[in-house]
Amino acid sequence: MKINDNKVIGIIGLGLMGTSIAAALALKDQKIIAVAPMGSDLDKEAPKRIRHFLEKCQGEGLTGKAPEELMENIHFTTDYADLKSCWLVIECVVEDLDIKREVFKKIEQVVSHEVMITSNTSAIPISILQADLEVPERFYGMHWAEPAYTSPFLEIICGDRSPIEGAEQLYEIAKQWGKEPTLVRKDVRGFITNRIMYAMYREAFHLVENGYATVADVDRACKNAGGQWMAFCGLFRYMDLTGLKAYHAVMGDLFPELSNRKSVPKLIDDIAKANGNGVFNGKGFYDYTPEEAEKWKETFEKFAFDMNRLSKKYAAELEDISNSNNPKQ
To answer: Which segments constitute the 3-hydroxyacyl-CoA dehydrogenase NAD binding domain (predicted)?
Structure first.
C-alpha cells in the first residue's frame, strides 16, 4: 500500500491526547479533521485546549505563526463523513476495545480502502485491533507521548497483518513532523516504551511496599540517576558509555532478585479504587491542593519545552555520530 499524502489527517477523539496530537500536527501545517465522537464536555473544550497549546508553542519559540493562523488548519466536526478527504486517520478514543471497534467500523464506512488507519493505543495489541477491519493491512499503531507538541517520541507499530513497507513510510513522514520515531516491527503488548517503563514501575512499587524506600525516595532516585542520562542516549548506549562489563556482572546477581509480580500493586490499587487521580483531583501518591496541582502542571509544561530545546540542541550532533558508527543489528 502506497501512502497518498494529501496533507489532510483525521483525528478521532478530542480528549487530552487527541488535542495534544492535533496541536503537534497543526504546528507542521498539516490540515486536520478533528472528530469529536462523544460530544462530551471534554470534546467541547477541545478548541480552547488546542489554542492554549499553540499559544504556549508560539511563546516558547516553536512556531512563528499566530495561534489563529494555525487553528485554521483544523476543522472540528462530529460527522465521520468529513474524513473522506483524509489520507491518514488517527484514533485517540478511550482504551476500551469495544468502543475502538465501533470507531473503526464508522471510519471504514466513509474512507476508501487506501486510507491508513492508526491507533494511539498504549495497551491493546495492534493485531487485536486490526482483526475486525475490512482491510486490516492498512492498520498500524501510532503511539504518541504527552505533550505531543514538545516530545520527539512516536512509536510506529506493525500488527501481524501490517506490511513493514507501510510502517516505513509512516516512519519517514513522522520524521517530517519533527519526531524521532521508533519502528516496532513485531506486535507486542505495551510496545517498547511501556514495556520498559512498566518494568520500572513494578520494581518501584516493590521497593515501596516492602519498606526499602518511600515514594519520594524512589522518585528522587529516578530523577537524579536515569532521569539525567536517558534523554541523552537511552539504555544500551549508556551501558556502552559507562562500561558494558560492569552491567554484565551485576545482571547475574540482580536479575533473580527483581520483582516479577503479576498483579496490580496494592499501593496504586487502593488509591485508584478511592477515586484518586493525581493532580486532576488532588489525590494520588502525593496530596495536592488545587493551587499546588495547577503549579505542578504549569511547571511540567515549562519543563517539556526546555527538554524540547535541549534535545534539539544535541540531536544533529548525535545523529552525525550514529550515522558514522551504526550499532549492531
So the answer is: 9-187
Q: Is residue 327 part of a domain?
A: no
Same domain, 87 and 230: no
CA distance 134 to 276: 40
Name the residue range of residue 123's domain: 8-184
Would you state the torsion angle of the CA atoms of residues 116, 122, 124, 130, taken in this order, to the nearest 10 degrees? 0
Residue-wise pLDDT tens digits, 63-82: 999 999 999 999 999 999 99
Residues 174 and 142 grouped into a single domain: yes
Instruction: Indicate whether 260 pLDDT > 80.
Output: yes
Looking at residue 324, what is its pLDDT? 67
> To 5 degrees, how large is the angle CA 304–CA 119–CA 1?
120
Helix-, strand-, coil-residue percentages of the chain, each rounded to 5 = 55, 10, 35
Indicate which CATH number applies to the domain containing 304.
1.10.1040.10
Bridge partners (DSSP) of residue 144 are 154
Structure-block grid coordinates of residue 296: 505542578
CA separation for the pair 274, 270 (Å, rounded): 6
CA 75 from chain centre, in angstroms, equals 23
31-44 confidence digits (pLDDT tens): 999 999 876 666 68
Q: Tell me the mean pLDDT in the region 193-203.
A: 95
pLDDT single digits (tens) 287-310:
999 999 999 999 999 999 999 898
Contact between 22 and 74 under an 8 Å Cβ cutoff? The reply is yes
User: Can you say how many angstroms the Cα of residue 260 is from the centroid of all Cα atoms in its chain?
Assistant: 25
Alpha-carbon span 11 to 88, nearest angstrom = 9
Helices 46-59 and 16-27: crossing angle, nearest 10°?
Answer: 50
- Give yes or no for a cis peptide into 327 (omega within 30° of 0): no
Domain boundary, last residue among 140, 166, 184: 184
Assign residue 96 the CATH number of its domain: 3.40.50.720
